[in-house]
Amino acid sequence: MAANAADKPTASRATGRHGDTSPFALGLLLRRAHWRAAAMATEALRPLGIELRHFAVLIVLMDRGPTMQRDLAAATGADKAGIMRVVDDLERRGLAERKAVPGDRRARAVEITPAGIELFDAAHVSAQPLAGRLVAELGPGEPEKLMDLLTRFAYPADEHP
Questions:
Q1: What digits encode the pLDDT tens for the residues 106-140?
Q2: Whole-angstrom Cα distance, residue 74 to residue 83?
Q3: CA 27, 33, 35, 41: dihedral to nearest 10 degrees?
Q4: 102 DSSP assignment
Q5: Band of pLDDT at residue 104, cut at 50, 70 and 90
Q6: Phi/psi of residue 89, nearest 5 degrees
Q7: How many Cα atoms occupy the beta-carbon half-sphere of 32 within 13 Å?
Q8: Is the pLDDT score of 159 beyond 80?
Q9: Buried b (16+ CB within 10 A) or exposed e, 57-71
Q10: Integer Cα distance of 70 and 79 in angstroms
């Protein structure tokens, strides 16, 4: 069976290298771009004493307000145990706190604190000069075009009302 599969003509095979034309090329490029962007974010957040996983939760809390832990897990792609550790870290640092949910004495929502908002804003200041390095190789208008293309790719019109 393996011999037959090897004898069949195939499309371009994935290499992950520059110029890859395989069906996996776009995904591999997006992964490499993500790695570069995540490295920049990590560098920006390091002086503030948090990691990207912490900042991802702060983003959700700033956007949505108080949020149940299970919803934080879904929004950030973390598992339940992982999100609990992140929220514990944020609480220890005074950046977020768990609060009772009215009408459900067992449920707790996570809320960003004033210190968390201050750190969130400081992260943006810290990231500003580094963000320019991500698009330094692009020409005039290309960073905006890249953002537009990635936005349309990440949020297809048929998936959002």
A1: 888 999 999 999 999 999 999 999 888 999 999 99
A2: 9
A3: -140
A4: T
A5: confident
A6: -60, -45
A7: 11
A8: no
A9: bbebbeeeebbbbee
A10: 9
Q: Is the CB of residue 83 less than 8 Å from the CB of residue 107?
A: no
Residues 82 and 54: beta-carbon distance below 8 Å: no
Alpha helices, DSSP H only, in the chain? Answer: 2-7, 25-45, 52-64, 69-76, 80-92, 114-134, 142-154
The answer to whether the predicted template modeling score (pTM) of the entire model surpasses 0.70 is yes
Residues 6+ apart with CB under 8 A from 51: 42, 45
Question: Which residues is 104 bridged to in the sheet?
Answer: 101
Cα–Cα distance, 110 to 69 (Å, whole number): 7
Angstrom distance (rounded) from CA 6 to CA 157: 40
Q: What angle do CA 95, 101, 103 make, to 5 degrees?
A: 175
Q: What is the arithmetic mean of pLDDT over 129-155?
A: 93
Structure tokens at 130: 């580094």
